[in-house]
Amino acid sequence: MLDFNTIINNIHSNLKNEVVKGVVASYIPELSKQDVNHFGIFMQHMDGRTFMAGDANVPFSIQSISKVLTLSKAIAFEDNNLWTRVDVEPSGNPFNHLSLLELENGIPRNPLINAGAIVVADILCTQFKNPKADFLQYVRDISNDQSIKYNYKVAASEKLTGYNNYAAANLLKSFGNLHNDVEVVLDFYFHQCALEMTCAQVAKAFYVFANSGKCVNNKQHVTVSQAKRINAIMLTCGFYDESGEFAFEVGLPGKSGVGGGIVALLPNKFVITTWSPGLNAKGNSLIGMQALEQFTTQTNLSIF
Ligand code: DON
Which of 93, 182, 203, 248 gives 97 a disulfide partner, CB atoms 3.0 to 4.6 angstroms apart? Predict the structure, then answer.
């Protein structure tokens, strides 16, 4: 039987002293305050066991990891109608790339790049009565943790420098693919990205995708088929123009955020979250990717 405790702790202690840790995101000024030396790993096994190392219980800005959570709620509301407004193809481009959006008439390549996530945010602004409060409640419910919060400073900080997302939202609006006001949708989007969660909380939230749509409380939030689709999109699009590399190195569906978090999962087996704020050139956590590569290589647990 695999000794997950030893494996995770060894990976953590080997990587925590790496000299090259990547660069903390600074285009959202509030995120630049993060200490590059944070490093946490949390594993939630489906048999109920949990394993952790380092800063697994320190909250961080989940940023783009939130795009999977909003996607799951939009899919629950709209099912296949969603795919008339956003595609499911990898973009092969950075998360904030815009020229494809114009070439493809305002239909974002997938729901995990910024433009696609803004369309998903628009859907939630239409479907929810109180979008920010209702979405936060959804995240608290699937994670079984009522203490999860938005970091309002991070949301405000991104709004001040969010020119690229304003460009994306305006382009979507010009193509008729944004139904609510640009300001309303981006206010929601900046808040979803500013959710603050620990590695442990993110692993609990993503249990729903590893467990055929049922959360830790055994409540069905998306169907089995919807969970399959969400995992497929994470595998093909979760790391932008590094999605192929993540599949090659790690071999699991997953999602990264510029706060330095990564969550990955093996359906019916486990969810694993890492957090190390230093990013590589593609905007993904440098040490987090290495930790996950070592984990799936040492355990032989991947989808391939
Ligand atoms: O919209 C943005 O640029 C950020 N709120 C989120 C980007 C992000 O996390 C990309 N992930 N690696």
Answer: 93
